Amino acid sequence: MDKIISLCKRRGFVFPGSEIYGGLSNSWDYGPLGTELKNNIKQLWWKRFVQSRDDMVGIDSSLIMNPKVWEASGHLKEFTDPLVECKNCHNRFREDSLEETKCPDCGKKEFTSSMQFNLMFKTFIGPAEEKNNIAYFRPETAQAMFVDFKNVLDTSRKTLPFGIAQIGKAFRNEITPGNFIFRTREFEQMEIEYFIRQEDWEKYFEYWRKEIIEWIKDLGVDIKNIHENEISDKERAHYSKRTIDFDYDFPFGRKELYGLAYRTDFDLKNHFKEPPYKEEGVNAFYPHVIEPTWGVDRSVLVALLEAYKEEDKRIVLKLPVKLAPYKAAVFPLLANKPELVKLAKKIYDDLRKDFMVAFDDRGNIGKRYYSQDEIGTPACITVDFDSLEKNDVTIRDRDTMKQERVKIKDLANILKDKLNR
Ligand code: GAP
Predict the structure, then answer these.
(1) In which band, very low, low, confident or very high, does the pLDDT at 121 lie, cut at 50, 70 and 90?
(2) How far apart are CA 406 and CA 395, in angstroms?
């Protein structure tokens, strides 16, 4: 983890939040490269699960919803973690996160008895900080998919089975955030509420289980590092009748990466007095729901962990090409030869119309390769004196380090091929 955190800071993937003010505990800002990586993950997900399917539509809802939503969903009452306080140093912990009965900070063994702590972030709407004006930052994106169900249905004319998807921020006042971007108080989720007939729940639970696995493979994750964890009746969220967590072997232990839940008709029933779904010849009814859910930040973290390799003389991020922040980097062999710089800039400008491309003319070629390997750029393109005569360049592959001579006019297609592989 230390190596990943240091690479992230050094190369502009992720910085400590509010650093010049001494930071804000467990808050992180995505830098230029991290933002590209994170956006690539979200775009890949949106394309795969929304745009390329007939049975899915997307929404983008408000973060702050009517507080009645959280009453109906059960979050006001049930969305809690057990909290204990060390009697010696007064630091507080999630009871179920304590691996030993010792305080992780002072080593003493005396704790207060546990109490339930609600994880929702409270705020006030308008200037008066009064009880009537209390509102909450959403702790999951899911509720809007239920609350907007009828509006989506009426405007999209979907029939069962179909899903509503959303990507967005969620907020939880976690008692013990930590492990870099693994557990933070502000994070992003990619969620699907997949509406079905009750009798089909097992079939679609199985279906989404496989889809989650396929997605994990696309992130470049070795499936050996994934473990499905059937959550017991006692530990399941209040809305779920069956949950599987997809755990990953993080350097700090085996922990949840994604989740899959059968939420039944719990949420729609709590939000709608009348059954909201009607088909010809059948009485209106409450559809049931399968919910696959993905954390964006945890996706970024596993993509980095799996891609990070230390080889003989280099550090290389072997990210899937689709996720890499830059798809290519263009170098003039020598920075002080204007004719080389001019041609390299032209190639750079042409490729930039379709791909994220970097330009680098600092130091020698070896240093530039090193620098691009470290951020996962799949192709490095060098313009040399032969290029001026023959209209070709050297293209060097990140993973094999093989160099090839190719025509300048073929570069865009070569990059497209790499992206689709
Ligand atoms: N709508 C269901 C739901 O929110 P969850 O298991 O509580 O389920 C879904 O959260 C996903 O969100 C998790 O699998 C994880 O990837 C991510 N996640 C949850 N809490 C997080 C936190 N504090 N920091 C970062 N990611 C988190």
Answers:
(1) very high
(2) 7
User: 163-173 b/e with 16+ CB inside 10 Å = b?
Assistant: bbbbbbebbbe
Contact yes or no for 102/108 (Cβ under 8 A): yes
Tokens of 58: 């997307």
d(CA 324, CA 318): 9
Tell me which H or E stretch contains 304.
Answer: helix 296-307
- The helix (run of H) or strand (run of E) holding residue 201 is helix 201-218
Tell me, in angstroms, the distance from the centre of ligand 1 to residue 189's CA: 7
Query: Quick one: how far is CA 371 from the chain centroid?
Result: 25
Return all residues near 363 (Cβ < 8 A) that are at least 6 apart. Answer: none
How far apart, in whole angstroms, are the C-alpha atoms of residue 409 and residue 390? 11
The pLDDT of residue 100 is 75
If you write DSSP's letter for every residue of 307-319 in order, what string do you get? Answer: HEEEETTEEEE--
Q: Give the pLDDT of residue 95.
A: 87
Residue of 79, 293, 301 with the most ligand 1 atoms within 8 Å of its CB, for mutation: 293
Q: Which residues fall within 8 angstroms of residue 138, CB to CB, at 6 or more apart?
A: 63, 64, 65, 144, 170, 171
Ligand 1, residues 138, 187, 194: which to mutate, most atoms within 8 A of Cβ? 187
Looking at residue 306, its pLDDT comes to 97
Indicate yes or no: pTM above 0.90. yes
What single letter denotes the amino acid at residue 419?
Answer: L
Work out the number of other CB atoms within 10 angstroms of the CB of residue 346.
13
Q: Where are the alpha helices (DSSP H) in 244-337?
A: 266-271, 296-307
Q: What is the mean pLDDT of residues 329-356?
A: 97
In this structure, the residues whose C-beta lies within 6 A of any atom of ligand 1 are: 140, 142, 172, 174, 183-184, 187, 189, 191, 256-259, 291, 293, 295, 297-298
Query: Do 171 and 99 contact (CB within 8 A), yes or no?
Result: no
Strand partners, 190: 167, 294
Percentage, residues of the chain above pLDDT 70: 100
Is residue 98 predicted with pLDDT exceeding 90? no
Tell me, what amino acid is at 287? Answer: P
